[in-house]
Amino acid sequence: MTSSSISQFGSNPVRSLTSRAPAEPDERLQALKRLIGKVTPQIGFNDVCKTSIPDLTFYRMDKLATPTYCIYEPCVAIILQGAKEITFGEQACEFAQGSFFVTSVDIPTLARVTAASEQTPYLSIVLKLDLSMLNEVIQTQAPLKQEATPEARGFASGMASSEMLDAFARLSALTGQPLEAGLMSDLIKREICVRLLLSCAGHWLRSVTRDGYRDKGIVRAIEWLKLHYDEPLHVAQLAQLSGMASSTLHHNFRKLTGTSPVQYQKSLRLQAARSLMLTERVDVNTAALRVGYESVAQFSREYARRFGAPPSRDIKYARENGGRLD
Hints:
The protein has a seven-stranded antiparallel β-sheet. Strands 2-8-7-10-5 form a five-stranded mixed β-sheet. The chain has two domains: 203 residues, Jelly Rolls (Sandwich), CATH 2.60.120.10; 113 residues, Homeodomain-like (Arc Repressor Mutant, subunit A), CATH 1.10.10. It is of the alpha+beta class. Helices cover 44% and strands 20% of the residues. This is AraC family transcriptional regulator. GO terms for molecular function: DNA-binding transcription factor activity; sequence-specific DNA binding.
């Protein structure tokens, strides 16, 4: 994939790859790698570094691990070093150094780092998207001529431009500078929105964030599920909320998220239960009941299928390896 191409998930169940990293990485990419290498603690297995800049996170991994299920919020992420494979629905995409991906809704995924070592750790930077800010930028932007993009939505990717990398480098450099960050971080975030709209993902991004786009009903359904995942799910009521027939809801929901409403709720429940057991140290029975399961046995079966081990064993392993949730 070249810098002018775009990868989108949800249309064909085939594996797609980003282009390989250039022979001479952009100097801005190198600067970002050096910065994140300095600020992430050298703890070995896995480190998630929440920065002082709201919604900006650095990731570092020094060795490979088993695939993990996670839910990506609307965000833009850039792979600075190493590689990562993300499976969305039935389609997998591997992101190499210098590539980015952007999500428009909360999407359940299976992710695994495919290139990392102590000498060359996996490094990435993630910025949660302010969709209101993005839409404001879209409203002020003159229409651009873009190639038509596929129907698939929810997730898009490409190679980060030098200008996008530069904006991320300047935003990252504000960490630890509260005065400058308070004055400048939102300005740089708006610039990042502009860079995304000018990128190969721009046409897709405008189509899924502009006011009145046809998937707003699905977004309403997603927001309801996020708030009420521990309650019984009645698809007919969810369809009414979204303003669609049940069959249309199911089709459009799967197209946008790669899964059905029922499976989406299950992902939210299992992820919430895992978080409860790790962060609040509740037992398996309590976690299952708190996220909406009536049967602890069913919860344990579905948990093992999702995370590869029964709850107690998985949590024990996670605690021994830094308590990672991603």
